[in-house]
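Tutorial sheet, problem 5. The two components below are modelled jointly, 227 residues in total.
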Amino acid sequence: NAGVTQTPKFQVLKTGQSMTLQCAQDMNHNSMYWYRQDPGMGLRLIYYSASEGTTDKGEVPNGYNVSRLNKREFSLRLESAAPSQTSVYFCASRPYRVGQPQHFGDGTRLSIL
Amino acid sequence: QKEVEQNSGPLSVPEGAIASLNCTYSDRVSQSFFWYRQYSGKSPELIMSIYSNGDKEDGRFTAQLNKASQYVSLLIRDSQPSDSATYLCAVTPPLSGATNKLIFGTGTLLAVQP
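Model answer (structure tokens):
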């Protein structure tokens, strides 16, 4: 019963490096989301994909790109990492039916030096 | 004004007491309301959903929704030290449609004292 799986769980990068955070869900959900969580700021939406083949910007998209590879997978890419992107990143998914809750992965703890 | 507001706490209650967590939201026609629990260093975990005015009970948890006053609350009866966590309120904004986005509050830290 995996639910939402995120990889890696921890990562340390140097400023300017790039990396991709992976997310996969096995619940046949249509919608997927990427959030970052910083102390005192709560969960902020970076990008989301309402359905396979679509992606849209959220509240804080600058410095990130996403790919909805298929219905199961939604990746987040940092092209040139900056210290301000040090955060905990959560992926979530949600069924298509309106009003359903989101289900979260375990998160990726990312530090940019 | 933030769309979803919560007191950041910490809210400290003795073991066995009732913990009352509150959340207000700005858009009167919001549709769906959720409470998530987040332990330190862990991901948010859904504990309650509520969609219509009134109370919804699940074990020691009761969610209360008052759309006219635009608030949703979570009561935890017989609080245990294991309930110590941050509680996030989340609201589905109107016109979210197929995006199914949620707006989260910043959370209330609950500390249950043994």
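Marking note: The CA atoms of residues 31 and 92 of chain B lie 6 Å apart. Full credit if you identified this.
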